[in-house]
Amino acid sequence: VGPYVLITPNETRRNQLQQIAQKELNDLERWKEEHRPGPVKLVPQRLGGKESEAQARQKQQMMLMQSKYQQKHKREEYVKAKKAAEEAEILKKKAIQREKAERLEVKKRQQEMQRREMFLEDQYYKTNELLNRLDSGLPKSDSCQIANRGPESTAWSRSHTYKQALREDENRRLEEMKQEQRRKAELMEFKQKQEEEARTRAHQNEQRRVNNAFLDRLQNKTQPHSSYQPGYSG
């Protein structure tokens, strides 16, 4: 421990602070004495109700039975709301899984169509390459040969006709695949729209049911106790 300096207390300052504190305490006690509440004066009156003890006990028993019924009704409403929420959650999960499965199926179909298109295109190119090689092996015919067609001209004509038929067939297949893909996309969009509308209607019906249940509970609370009848199931 290093060196330190000891400062002696100021007795005059301490006495002044003590006098100020004592004066504040005295003022507080005097204020309490001045503002002390006076005695309570009540007008004498007869206590108790106009009903007899038997009527009071009967009314108390009826209120107890009504309270039990209300608690039972609240528990039933809570169980129903919880069950409805669980069913809605299950339906939502099923709808999500169904959408995933449909998207996966559409994706598989699209991949299959792409593979088929690639296969047909590759087959088309190979066929054209074969026909081009066959055409390159034939001699070129002049005007005289065109006028007098021989076996070579006939082979070239058959090759050209076969090539043209293949092109038309490939174009027709591609057009059919495009139309089929377009129809599937439109059908998928229509189904998604229907499911979205069904989910919206289900959500609106659930909200309407919850609101009606809340209004029924509110109406039961606002009804007077005298209207309660034992055995009434609502």
UniProtKB/TrEMBL annotation:
Cite the record's Polar residues compositional bias ranges. 220-234
Disordered as annotated region, ranges: 32-56, 136-234
Q: Which UniProt keywords apply?
A: Coiled coil
Which parts of the chain are coiled coil? 78-121
Ranges of Basic and acidic residues composition bias in the record: 165-209
Q: Which InterPro entries match?
A: EPSTI1
Cross-referenced PANTHER family: EPITHELIAL-STROMAL INTERACTION PROTEIN 1
Name this protein carries in UniProt: ESIP1 protein
Gene encoding this chain? Epsti1
